[in-house]
Structure formats: structure tokens, C-alpha cells
Amino acid sequence: MQLGLQAYDEIVGEEPLITSGPQYDMVQRATGRLVEAAKRMGPEFTQRFEWEVRLIDNPDVVNAFCLPGGKMAVYTGILPVAQTETGLAVVMGHEIAHATERHGTERMSRAQLEELVVQAGVTAAGGDELHAEAARGALQLAVNLPFSRRDELEADQVGLLYMAAAGYDPREAERFWGRMSALSGGGGSSLEAFLSTHPTDQDRIAQIRELLPEAMRLYEASEAVGNP
Length: 228
What we know:
There is one protein chain. This protein has helices at residues 2-12, 22-41, 79-82, 85-100, 103-125, 129-165, 172-184, 190-195, 201-224; strands at residues 17-18, 52-56, 64-66, 71-75. The chain is an alpha+beta fold. Helix 2 crosses helix 4, helix 4 (85-100) crosses helix 6 (129-165) and helix 6 runs parallel beside helix 9. The longest helix is centred in the middle third of the chain and has 37 residues, at 129-165. Strands 1-2-4-3 form a four-stranded mixed β-sheet, sandwiched between helices. The two termini are 30 Å apart.
């Protein structure tokens, strides 16, 4: 959480922020509802997060993030792709899930362990830094990239449930990732998909379709109790 706060201050401190207006209100409202859903459904430690979101005025960046500890930002460049508050909930549910599932913490721990393994192996084999770089490359292909794709799909899954529990129609998730696919020019080759840290849009959409019945039950239950 401390590292997340430090990184957050460094990032947003260098960016122009929007602090009022319809876009700002939408970001605050959607994120607030998703955070409440995450607190209800997520691990107990999410209650200790210092949740906060800021809107960064950068139309060229199609992105949003949530750091360990709950510090979040939305770039205005993602809003035209989101189109609506429900579309934004797809994005922010996904980002919040990265934090509640501790993906950032896991990656940091894994990186430290992998460096110890590389150094020990190279030393035992009598190699040099060139051999160490080759070993790091092999680990990247064999471990880090698959883990990253796994994390992204897990964030899609958990985020879909968060948005449904918060009263946002989860069917919008498929439409959102369809727009993202069109923006990126489609799925790409199998090699590009293998080397990517993100799953293909087709894989994401296929998983969303599988999860929709469960998500719709949460959404309908949320509507039944009058979730705003």
C-alpha cells in the first residue's frame, strides 16, 4: 500500500487533473459504487485500502489503473471507448479487481524470486551477465507472460461480478471489449497473442459469455434491492 501511494503521487503529480464537471462526476459515481461492491465481495483486506480515484485530462491515453492499496486514475482517452457510465464500470471493475486479487503484489514477489533463481543458476554454471540475460528472457516467456495473461482474465472475471453487484448491466462488458478490439485492429497473429501480456480480445469475450449467467443473477439481485 505504501509503494502504491508513492507511485500514485508520482504519476498524478505530473498530470493535468479534472476536478469537476460531468465526466468527473461520472468517474466518481461509478468508482464509488464499484468500490462498495468490492468491499462486500472482496477479501477482508480491501476494507483497509485507501480508495481514491482521479480523472487525468489526457485524451491520447486510452487507459485506467488501480494500484495496490486502492489508488486509481482514469485517463480521459478511455471515456470515448467506454461511451457510458456502464462502459466505464467495465474498465474500473477490471482495474479494481487487479488490486483486490493482489496481482501487483504477486508480480513484485515473483520478480524478486526469479532474480535470485537466475543469479544462483548462472553462478552455479559459471556463466556471466550475458547468460543471466538469456535466463531472464526464458523466464519471461515461460512464466511472466502466462501469469500476466492469467491475471488479466482473472481481473475480467472478478471485475464483471463487481460491476453486476454494483448494479451495472454486465452485458456491456462484451460490447466494450468489442470496441477495444476494433480500436486495436483485431486479434493479431498467434505469435503476437503468445508474446502479449494481455489475452486476445476474443479470449476475453469468450470468458465473459461463459460468466454472464452468474453475473446476470448478481445484477438482477442488485436491481431487486434498488441499487441506484
